[in-house]
Amino acid sequence: MRPKIRPSTAGAKGTCWAQLNRLKGIHKVPLTGAVPLTFVPELTVILDPDPGGSGYVFDMPYVRQPSPFSAERYTDLVVEFHRPGVGLRGRLEDAPPQPVTIDPEQPPAWLS
After folding, report:
1. For 11-29, b where at least 16 C-beta lie within 10 A, e where not — what string?
2. Mean pLDDT for each 10-residue chunk of the chain (112 residues)?
3. What are the residue ranges spanned by the domains of the chain?
4. Residue 37: CB partners within 8 Å, gap ≥ 6?
5. Which candidate among 56, 73, 75, 95 keeps its CA 20 to 30 Å from the CA of 21?
6. How far, in whole angstroms, is CA 110 from its chain's centroid?
7. Long-range pairs for 46-52 at CB < 8 Å and ≥24 separation?
8. Inter-residue contact 102 to 95 (CB < 8 Å)
């Protein structure tokens, strides 16, 4: 099951900045007068329970596929579960490259 990805306000700014950088690279024209934004984009992923009942499957390759944040060095990752009051935070760059199963009661070290 694919996770749902929800952009945040920081994500909207990050998307805009990533698109401007992409255009700069395509057209080889500097962004004159543009003030570089200094923020870390935030990516929120909402996970559904695994149908087998073994936790929540997090499809990391799907989340890491090309996006406006692909060129960013750092991305804050917010993992939410379809379960009230449970949410974890980490860094996308610290997450493993393969799909993982997450138990919200005992999260992996890269999420807190």
Report:
1. beebeebbeebeeeeeeee
2. 60 68 76 64 82 84 70 76 80 88 88 86
3. 4-102
4. 13, 17
5. 95
6. 13
7. 46/3, 46/4, 46/5, 46/6, 46/80, 46/81, 46/82, 47/3, 47/79, 47/80, 47/81, 47/82, 47/102, 48/1, 48/3, 48/82, 49/81, 49/82, 49/83, 50/1, 50/101, 51/1
8. no
